[in-house]
Structures are given as structure tokens and as C-alpha cells.
Amino acid sequence: MKSPAPEPESARGTEPDSAEQTPLDFIREIIADDVRTRKNGGRVATRFPPEPNGYLHIGHAKSICLNFGVAQEFGGTCNLRFDDTNPTKEDVEYVDSIIDSVHWLGFDWEGRLYHASDYFDTIYEYTVQLIKDGKAYVDDLTADEIREYRGTLTAPGRESPWRNRSVEENLELFERMKEGEFADGEKVLRAKIDMASPNFNLRDPVLYRIRHASHHRTGDKWCIYPMYDNTHAISDALEGITHSLCTLEFEDHRPLYDWVIENCPVPSRPRQIEFARLNLTYTVMSKRKLLDLVQRGDVAGWDDPRMPTIVGLRRRGYTPESIRDFATRVGVAKRENLVHVELLEDSAREDLNRRAPRVLAVLRPLRVVIENYPEGQVEAIELVNNPEDPASGTRRVPFSRVLYIEQDDFREEAPPKFYRLAPGREVRLRGAYFLKCTGVVKDEQGAVTELRCTYDPATRSGSSPDGRKVKATIHWVSAAHALDVDVRLYDRLFTVPNPADDKDGRDYKEFLNPDSLEVLTGCRVEPSLATAKPGDRMQFERLGYFVVDPDSAPGHLVFNRTVTLRDTWARIEKAQGSRLRAGS
Length: 584
Ligand code: ATP
Ligand code: MG
What we know:
By secondary structure, this protein is an alpha/beta fold.
């Protein structure tokens, strides 16, 4: 039994509900303040606005947990909105997977599923109004010229020669752009703001561009598409979003966001607030890079269990609860930082420890023959399913004369502090008897192929009536009853903590870990798993948490390792190893 953790400082108040109160992050503080002062009538409305050009990753999960979480906490609403303004990169496959991932994480938009493309008509109307107000113009400069005219950090931009077209001419040209009279890139519509602004985003940003491309929702209705900045601001305002939470890279775009809100006849005034993106060690966190890994075949797909995508983490065995817990633990900050992936793994461990049933499994089997155990006898050993959850009950596991144990649990010559099986040494078999190694069988190469052992029938309770002690308990399966399964062990996808940010500018793909996947065949698991289904999670005792992979076929299970348990021996060995290296 674990002793209860000491109560955190904040939980020791006298108020009965004070344990619920965690300190507010800066976003929640702003929102709480707005609610208190009845801004927006005290209403809170957020949205999660993915672009359907890839699968969601753990960074998006942070944003989802923040947006939906804030709405829940303040009795507000959170919309799911597809930011589908770029017809060439978007796909329904992505739309479907995003919907599925948000649901799987445990959030619901209660029917408020929107698309930026729902607003194309309104955005167009507002834009016509901007032209009428003299605040937008059609520009004939090419993309390169526009970039050149934009100036630099130290030099102001230059005005386009087309900047002062008349309202009538602009209206007519914009109409003709819409009617498809011009080729891609031939003209754009720009906001007329300030070419000398210290903020690049205000140097007459492009509001519309020509793209002769079919859109996955609006088909061929449009050949001009609004840009992210105006679309996002207008979409927020049309949906009555009160707090538009986005990542830090949009901080410099906020003046433009506000400009759009102020200059278009929008029905509400949302406020944009930026927070730091989540970055995780040993992975990359950009849809473009993840797509690249998928397309190059470095991973088996978006849902490869090594991917930081929601579908990948799910296939790896993560629970939605563990991901939400992780999001809470990393919190919301104003500064970019790199979060240790161990924190994510720890969230998984903590959650799975509570809920995952324990089973016996042997990854690298070593045959054990118990010479004094009656041939043909089988007995049922009753084992607790989950010591953390008494309601989960017990199950019966067959025990017989021939077992498999883990190769690692035996050493012919036991080093110091290795307390498991060795010739002449006695250990406890989990839930069963004491077992003593009396002999070793080897093949021609000298590799150990089988252990000869004896058991003590008086130790079934797990202890010896004569008070004899053993220092280790090892796991086992009955050879005749165990299921033969495959197990996939996953390691970090990259060999360095921050592959996308190498100080020598090397490409992140140079740091792919060639050993990130190890496939074990011929593993053995206890027969109770015969009915396990893809997605079932369990703890293999002493080995880690595992999940049944969808690649499993009837009669042939495939397991993915979600995360290891803490292995003290590995740590000792590692510490010794590094000490040896350090001393050499
Ligand atoms: P990527 O850079 O991975 O392609 P993105 O920002 O282009 O991501 P969007 O689909 O536009 O992806 O993101 C949807 C929402 O999720 C946005 O509000 C975005 O700010 C947020 N988001 C994206 N990546 C992260 C991250 N790493 N941490 C937190 N929030 C993120
Ligand atoms: Mg984006």
C-alpha cells in the first residue's frame, strides 16, 4: 500500500472546497477578471481552430485542453473550428482525424462545429466594405516585389504604385479577381494600413489571394481565398468568441487582428491572448516535419506509436486522462520552453498504475523445468488484478512443471546486488512458490537454453514456514499455457533532446534514432489475455505498461510498450557503467 502523499500547501485551507483551487495561470486570471467585471456580459467563449493539413499532435492537445478546459471552468462554450483557408494543403482525412482526436481526448463542442469556409461570403462582404472605406486595394505587384517593397527591420517599406487606385477601380478589380479573370499570383488584395509601421504585419498585409483550386468544402465556388489573419479575426467575431487563445508566434499579428476587428462591421469584439507553444524533448512538433517523416517512411504512419501525434500516443497506449493530466502539469506560460518527455511518460505511468490490470508476461523467455514438480499437474494460482484497485478482483493463472522466466532474471554469475536467479540461488515466483536453480543446460555455443530447478511445496503462500528469506520475486508463465505474442518496444524517435534546433544547423532527420523500434517475437503472456482486444491496456508485471495493437489478428496478439516501469537494476548498471567510463 502506498502511504497517502502529503497534502499540498493550497489544500490545507479551512474551506471545504479549497482542495479544488489550483492557482490560476495568466490566461485564467485574465478571464476570471473579465468575468468579474462582466466584460462580454460575463460570458466566456473560446474555440480550438486547427488547420486541417495534418494530424493533431501533443502541442495541439495542450491548446485543446486549454480552450475546452477554460470554457468548462467558467461555464462557457468552446467551438471546434476548422481554419480551412488554404485549399491546396487540406484534406477530409485530416478533418475526420481531428474530430476523432478531440473527442477521444474527452471534449465536445456540443454541435458547434464550424469552418472558416462557412464565413467566406461574409468575409467577402466585409472586404468589399473595406474597399469602399478606402482601407483596402488591389495590388499588381508580384509576391517577390511585395516582399521587396516591404522593407526591413531598420528601413520602412515602400508604397506600391497601385496603392492609390480609386475605390471604383478597386471594387471592379476585386470583383474580377473573384470571377476568375486573373491567374494565381497576378493580383492580390491588400489592406491599406502603414508601410512605415515598425510592425511588418501592418505594412499593407495581403488580405486575399488568387488560388484556382478546389476547396474540400466550397468546391469551385471561390478562386480567391482570404488570408489567415483576417479570416481568423472575423471568424472569432462572428462566433462571438470572447477570448481567442493562440500561440506566441501570433503576438506580432495581434495589431492586425485588432485592426480587422476595428475596421470591419463585425458583431463582437474578441480579444486575442497568446501563450507559449508546447515543445517536447526527443521529438519534433510541427505538422510539416511530421508529414515529412510519414512521407519518407521513417515511421509507419501518422499513428506510429513513436509519433507525438494524438493518434500515435493513443496507439502507444496513452489514455486521454494521462494526456489531460500532462497538459495540466505543463501549465500555460508566456515563454517558450522545452518540456521533458519524461513528464509525459510519468503522466501515463501514474494513470495506468491506477487502472491497468496486471498480467504476467515474459518478453525474452528462458525455459525452466521444475524437476520435483509432478509431471502433468496444473494448479491455478490466484493473482490480484490490480493492487491499486481492489474492485478489479482476482484471476487464476495456471502453474505447471515447465515455466518461462525472463532471461534477464537469471545470471550464471551473479554480479553484486543482483538478487535474482543464479545457480544455487532461491527466488520467489510471483504469487507462487520459492524456486531454486539447481542446474543449467547450454547449447553448443555455450548459451543457456534451460534451467533446472526445484520448488519448495511449503512456500505456496509466498513465504517459507522455516523463516527462510529470498531477496527477489520474479515473474513467470506456464510454458504449456502461455500465448505466443509479438511485442514492440519503442524508444525515442530522435537521439538528441531538441532535433529541430541543432546549433550547427543540421537537419532534424539526421538525428533519427535507428533503434527507436525493437520487435520481439516469441514472447509469452498468460492465457487470460486470449480475449484481449486492440486498445486494451495492461501492466506486464515488472516490465511496463503495454497496449494491444490493432495489428493483432485472431490468435496472434501484438503488444506495444507504452512506457517502462522504473527499473532499479538498469539504473544501477547504468550508474556503474558511466562510473567505469568516467574512470577510464
Ligand atoms: P504546426 O506548427 O504543428 O503545424 P499549427 O500552429 O500550424 O501547428 P494549427 O492547426 O494552426 O497548427 O493549430 C491549431 C491550434 O493549436 C492553434 O491555436 C495553435 O496555436 C495551437 N497549437 C499548435 N501547435 C501548438 C503547440 N506546440 N503548443 C500549443 N498549442 C499549439
Ligand atoms: Mg497554423
